[in-house]
Specification:
Protein name: Malate dehydrogenase
Helix content: 40-55%
Structural class: alpha/beta
Low-confidence stretches: 5-22
EC number: 1.1.1.37
Strand content: 15-25%
Keywords: NAD, Oxidoreductase, Tricarboxylic acid cycle
Distance between the termini: 33 Å
Catalytic activity: (S)-malate + NAD(+) = oxaloacetate + NADH + H(+)
Strand order of the largest sheet: 3-2-1-4-5-6
Number of helices: 12
Family: Belongs to the LDH/MDH superfamily. MDH type 2 family.
């Protein structure tokens, strides 16, 4: 297998070498797991086109998948070459985790057994925990110690926790789980309800687990109407909607997409992964974003689980938004999703002992 200095295909053929302009930054290595899958198919172009790390940052893609998918991955490598993307300096397809994670600055851990119609998240836990244990060990051995790891594969929060546990030389805060898809869903629902462009709604929060116990919270969200910001609850003026229909729609959106599409929400998940990593690298400005991070007990949540909080990001470091008021309703919701995460953690640790 060739090093990441040009396009490399999984068969022994002539390589196409792409060299970034000298005026740009040095390339960073970025790994995507499950690289032959549906989410990656949408995600890879976004990474390679500059939508994630910026228009001046060249990237070298490491593509990891299982051995039976190498033929499919060969086609993905061809398509990336055919895109003729100036920022893409090389592609390394592989089935070897240590090769894939070598010296990477960012990791999108997408590959996991997918949830199918009728499946519960706990059905995924046993198989996927083993995958993320192995990947944590590989990251610990060969990745950069400042690598930023985003877990997309479900159950994402607990997978991120296990991955971190088996990569003890990498700081815990460098492992995150994706709840940005839920935030994007919530933001879209609120914008449609109020009748404004989606970008005019900000600071909606996803608390807890990326599961049906998550708590989409609009109580601190703001909306721009006629040039002035207004609290979303005042703009909607329907507390019952915000506690019932809004929450349940966001909680069940993934299942609704599966029911309609007969496949999971790959396009929106790829967009959310791009959003998450872009904000982690480039900052959030005046907006809060939702990220699953290792809990320090903030807001009465269980410690040492990966819990989604509102965060701000600057200089590549996330910080939990402090001082928010938690209503009685919110307290109940946070406790419920926290209880699920604590139970998932114990189940996952039991699997790891087997």
């Amino acid at each position: 297998m060739a090093c990441c200095c040009g396009y490399s295909e999984p068969i022994d053929t002539e390589r196409v070498v792409v060299v970034a302009p000298l005026t740009m930054a040095a390339p960073i290595k970025v790994v995507v797991t499950g690289a032959a899958g549906q989410i990656a198919y949408s995600l890879l172009y976004q990474i390679a086109s500059g939508a994630v790390f910026g228009p001046e940052q060249p990237v070298c893609l490491h593509l990891l998948d299982i051995a039976p998918m190498m033929g499919v991955l060969e086609g993905v490598v061809m398509e990336l070459a055919d895109c003729a993307l100036p920022l893409l300096t090389g592609v390394l397809p592989t089935a070897n985790p240590e090769e894939a994670f070598k010296d990477v600055a960012a990791a999108f851990l997408v590959g996991a057994m997918p949830r199918r119609e009728g499946m519960e998240r706990k059905d995924l836990l046993s198989a996927n925990v083993r995958i993320f244990k192995e990947q944590g060990q590989a990251l610990d051995k060969v990745a950069r110690k400042d690598v930023k790891v985003l877990v997309v594969g479900n159950p994402a929060n607990t997978n991120a926790l296990i991955c971190s546990k088996y990569a003890p030389s990498i700081p815990k805060e460098n492992f995150t789980a994706m709840t940005r898809l839920d935030q994007n869903r919530a933001q879209s629902q609120l914008a449609a309800k109020i009748g404004v462009p989606v970008q005019d709604v900000k600071n909606v929060i996803i608390w807890g687990n990326h599961s049906s116990t998550q708590f989409p919270d609009a109580s601190n969200a703001l909306v721009k109407i006629n040039g002035a910001e207004k609290p979303v609850p005042a703009a909607i003026n329907d507390d019952e909607y915000l506690k019932t229909t809004f929450v349940s729609t966001v909680q069940k959106r993934g299942a609704a997409v599966i029911a309609a599409r007969k496949m999971s929400s790959a396009l929106s998940a790829a967009k959310a992964a791009s959003d998450h990593m872009r904000d982690w690298f480039l900052g959030t400005g005046d907006r809060w974003v939702s990220m699953g991070v290792v809990s320090d007990g903030s807001y009465g949540t269980p410690r040492d689980v990966v819990f989604s909080f509102p965060v701000t990001v600057s200089n590549g470091k996330w910080k939990i938004v402090e001082g928010l008021t938690i209503s009685d309703f919110a307290r109940q919701m946070l406790d419920n999703t926290g209880k699920e995460l604590a139970e998932e953690k114990q189940d996952a640790l039991d699997v790891c002992k087997d």
